[in-house]
Design a protein that fits this description.
Order of helices and strands: HEEEHEHEEEEEHH
Shape: globular
Distance between the termini: 32 Å
Number of strands: 9
EC number: 3.1.21.7
Subcellular location: Cytoplasm
GO biological process, one term: DNA repair
CATH class of one domain: Alpha Beta
Oligomer: single chain
Function: DNA repair enzyme involved in the repair of deaminated bases. Selectively cleaves double-stranded DNA at the second phosphodiester bond 3' to a deoxyinosine leaving behind the intact lesion on the nicked DNA.
Protein name: Endonuclease V
CATH superfamily of one domain: archaeoglobus fulgidus dsm 4304 superfamily
Radius of gyration: 17 Å
Largest sheet: 9 strands, mixed
Strand content: 15-25%
Helix content: 10-25%
DNA sequence: GCGACAG
DNA sequence: ATCTTGTCGC
């Protein structure tokens, strides 16, 4: 089970906006955007074949569903595509969604769900940004640092930063770097993540938008993108995220309908 | 004042 | 995120 390593950096919704931003700068200073993994990222897949001998790493997907003022946080842990554990927690939400401060709304509920885990993931995928954040401390980075676990941010749209090329109609498998600009604390030009086209229609009129992948903690930008691509299997979202998404919806339906 | 931004 | 019918394309 993962345990809180930095209680001083937990997302406190009662902080003022200024204090939240100050905490994010502190988190960014504690975060590592370099690989520090317990497994070989080049051998990761969501299928059975992987590193011979020691077996694939435990990968967790985290996602949430909402119902009134409550958040249902779900975590699904799998190894080589096989589900190892599923947990969820229902938590009261105390503050609204504010761009740039997402972890202060959803971080607490996620911590609640993590407390239910009995296994310790080698990698955690979050729904949102990591380093692609004004102060380089998005949800994935915040949670990664609090638990000191390798993490990756998987977002469906870009919060900030500038793509080095167009991200429209990219072919499947394509990857476009996202660089820090004046809106980001990192030095301009620093690659803080990538647009990753995990899926695309072969032909036709419509096109699928790429995923926005960024390092959370203990993973570099290239590896984060490669891991998400390796964990994807025919759908836009990587499998760990899809499983968490489905489980969150399932848990939610237990409460309403 | 304008712009604008994860879930 | 959530609210929702239809509609296009494989």
């Amino acid at each position: 089970m993962l345990s809180v390593q930095r209680p001083d950096l937990l997302p406190d919704p009662a902080l003022s906006r200024e204090e939240m931003e100050a905490l994010q700068r502190e988190i960014a200073a504690e975060a590592s955007f370099e690989n520090d993994l317990s497994f070989d990222p080049a051998a990761v897949t969501d299928g059975p074949l992987s590193t011979p001998g020691e077996g694939p790493p435990l990968v967790a997907g985290v996602d949430q569903a909402f119902l009134d003022d409550r958040a249902i946080s779900a975590i699904v842990v799998s190894r080589g595509g096989e589900i190892v554990e599923r947990v969820y927690a229902v938590s009261e939400l105390s503050i609204p969604y504010i761009p740039g401060l997402l972890s202060f709304r959803e971080g607490g509920p996620i911590v609640d769900a993590v407390a239910e885990l009995t296994v310790e993931p080698d990698l955690v995928l979050f729904d949102g940004s990591g380093r692609i954040h004004f102060r380089e401390a998005g949800l994935a980075t915040h949670m990664g640092v609090v638990f000191d676990v390798p993490s990756v941010g998987v977002a469906k749209s870009l919060l900030c930063g500038t793509p080095t090329d167009t991200t429209d109609n990219l072919p499947e498998g394509a990857r476009v770097p996202i660089e820090a600009d004046a809106d980001v604390t990192a030095a301009a030009g620093t690659v803080i993540g990538h647009a990753v086209q995990t899926r695309q229609y072969d032909s036709g009129n419509r096109s699928i938008n790429p995923l926005i992948v960024s390092p959370g903690h203990r993973v570099d930008a290239d590896t984060a993108a490669a891991l998400v691509a390796a964990l994807t299997d025919g759908y836009k979202l990587p499998e760990p995220t899809r499983r968490a998404d489905a489980y969150a919806e399932e848990a939610k339906s237990l409460f309403d309908g």
